[in-house]
């Protein structure tokens, strides 16, 4: 037998002579480049195809096993595979054509699923396997109901343009339309990777959702009023519990525990304090588990799959937030930082309590998401550079945090001084000095 890693003529005689050695054996065909045979330590014999990808790395595919597949059939299958496998020697046009032919062959063999079937099946499996939030899947299902029964390849750029025009006429804002299209584009990217589509149609649809973002943050007076309203709410909850205890005792019923000696009576104030001191998005906050919070390192680990851009990040815990977590943990849900004790799951909404809190604090035009803007604004005003603000907020693009640039202390004045004023003052100073010397 030839030595492993040598070139041979892969035919019936060669295959019959193969003997397992307890180690991997690899042989390359002498005539068809990339075609080979691999013998595993257990004696399994496989026909393989090795090729160089367009990015320069090597790839290997299993063609079949011997003796179920003959050497001749394996050679023909390897040739057919090479004809539709993109390689480093292919031009970009050839690569795209090979991808298109491969997708067409997969579609002919298996058919193309509908958007609804793919969403509920393979797409959900993909999200769960990769620990990615299913929020986008829910957004696609609610935003594109008329497409759920269509085959994926029936969704074209033009059908999406028509959908965009139709939805815009109902008064939906451009930014909202852009978010819906972005969610669909993510699903169709996975469908393209699964070779149900040759190209992602959502990528070709223009987005008009670049409306100006109003950066709303709390003034010093608003911040004081908000904290005063939260403390007043805590005291009102304690008083309400005290009345309940007295009423139940009078009726000789078991009273609930007193709230007089606890720092927080429910989740709202810890939630607001966390939002203002971490900049986490609402979804990230509600998904927080106690295992994500390291009080020794004073760090919040925001898990991949709960973030908008699906990237893990670490956020330092401020002194105020450390004190809040320390006081809240004995009172909170055992697993979730902001859990629902009635359902043993994370909170899903707190809108009514938040709105009542703002009303009590006499604060208008401040959404819960604006706590994130407030966090970023405080960082920038303190002189923290925008790239570190970007990292703390979990943005992938520095452009997203440029909305806070105007808050940086004297950043425009500093630029003008360095570029114009300081050189001019230096020139004037030199001229005056020269004039003084000449006069002397």
Automatic annotation (TrEMBL):
InterPro entries: DNA_brk_join_enz (IPR011010), Integrase-like_cat_sf (IPR013762), Integrase_catalytic (IPR002104), Integrase_DNA-bd_sf (IPR038488), Integrase_DNA_bind_dom (IPR025166), Integrase_recombinase_N (IPR010998), Tyrosine_recombinase_XerCD (IPR050090). Residues 248-417 form the Tyr recombinase domain. It comes from the Bacteria. The keyword DNA-binding applies. It holds the Pfam family Arm-DNA-bind_3. Keywords: DNA integration, DNA recombination, DNA-binding. Belongs to the 'phage' integrase family. This is Site-specific integrase. It comes from Paraburkholderia ferrariae.
